[in-house]
Amino acid sequence: QVRLQESGPGLVSPSQTLSLTCTVSGGSITTENSWWTWIRQPRGKGLEWMGAISYSGRTKYRPSLKSRTSISRDTSKNQFTLELSFVTPEDTAVYYCAGGPPRATLNESADKWDYDYWGQGTQVTVSA
To answer: Could you report the per-residue pLDDT of 92-101, keeping only the tens digit for each?
Structure first.
């Protein structure tokens, strides 16, 4: 059974960099054709696709976040990481990691049903 677990600080100061790690167990982030994704949900708003990294290390980002977002991976630890720079209170949200097929990334989907695996989510608050 593949499981995803997000980890990272729950509180980040404005203008700093938010860094979250997703640890994958029961499966490999290098499995062919798999994509590993970050999605967030601000309180009272819908899910927002942020970006993804492929089994081979290719990345794709939401255009509106591209200048502030970086997704990387550590295959030795079977982890992938989100970094979001210059955060503001508007970046306060529950952040989820997910794993799925290429079409989910192609469509920049934030629909849970388009993914094979979904983490439980972690709350990140941006505040001084």
So the answer is: 999 999 999 9
* 73-120 pLDDT, tens digit each: 999 999 999 999 999 999 999 999 999 999 999 999 999 999 999 999
Backbone φ/ψ region at 112: left (φ over 0), alpha (ψ -120 to 50), beta: alpha
Exposed / middle / buried, residue 44 (Cβ in 10 Å: 0-12, 13-18, 19+): exposed
Length of the chain measured in residues: 128
User: Tokens 């054709």 sit at which residue?
Assistant: 33
* Phi then psi dihedrals of residue 90, to 5 deg: -70, -15
Q: Cβ(126)–Cβ(91) under 8 Å? A: yes
- Kindly report the backbone phi and psi dihedral angles of residue 91, in degrees, each rounded to the nearest multiple of 5, phi listed first: -90, 0
Question: Which helix (H) or strand (E) element contains residue 105?
Answer: helix 102-106
Which residues are within 8 A (CB) of 57 and not within 5 positions of it... i.e. 6 or more apart? 73
CA 117 to chain centre: 12
